[in-house]
Amino acid sequence: MYLKTPFWRDGTGLGSHNDSQSPVADLVNSLDRQRLYREITLALRTGLSDARAEFSFLRVRGLRSILKFLRSVAECDATINLFIHSQSIPELQVVPVLFKHSLREHEDQDVASLDHIFTVEPMKIISPSTDAEASVALRVLEGCCLLHRESTILAHQYKAIPVLMNMLSNRGVLEQGACLDALISILLDSSANQMDFEACNGIEEVALLIRDKQVDENLRLKCGEFLLLLIGHVNGGREKLPMATIHDDVRRFLGEKSASLIWAASQLGSTLDTEQRLTALHIQARRVLESIDLY
């Protein structure tokens, strides 16, 4: 959403503090906000229309449009707030569309009856989700949950954790990497999703991937980063946590040395900026991987 300057701002001469308090400035700001909200709703309606399509290539087009839209929304607090408001409108909610179309498990389209043959209405056939579609849908899910906390509640209603854990076990490297990022965004500050993750033996599933030397090394590194982020979040959270046994689980599945490394790395505090934390996270994940290979 890179918008041109609207015509009503031409010649207003706004800029000084006194001007910003004038009725004209209030009117201009109100028009700007309404215009921006219309652009947001239009972008969502257009993207979601394609994301509900019967054919995968159309759904991919819609999902990519929504992902691009979310990236532009994240650049400004004002647009983030407008996006959050838009998600209170059912027909503009993104998460339900993802789980009803792109992230749903493929069902064989068995013919239960022959009624459609003897009627004028054709049988509706929906193409299954491709690997590219699933990976983009996971990126969209991640963006929605990071920008809009209530999206994690919607994701829980659609059994997001079991769906994503199934994809993590059965999909390719591209989808597995996107799945780990989406899982982190869903688990943050969501007790319900954390309980589902524990019920699905999530730590064990991730540990199996990180210990399997046949798995792509980049994916194993991402698994290590996932554990570091998850434990770091749990350490900094409240006392009563659904995942209270996470440290014991990591020690049981990855060994004492790896568990100690993960715990120490999770203590990286807020003294580091974002770039430094990402670099440290990657280094620590590699150390964890090396310790596991020696275990």
Automatic annotation (TrEMBL):
* Cited InterPro entries: ARM-like, ARM-type_fold, Cell_div_Cdc14
Cross-referenced Pfam families, in alphabetical order?
CDC14 (PF08045)
- Superkingdom classification of source: Eukaryota
In Swiss-Prot or TrEMBL terms, this protein is called: Impaired sucrose induction 1
Q: Source organism lineage?
A: Eukaryota, Viridiplantae, Streptophyta, Embryophyta, Tracheophyta
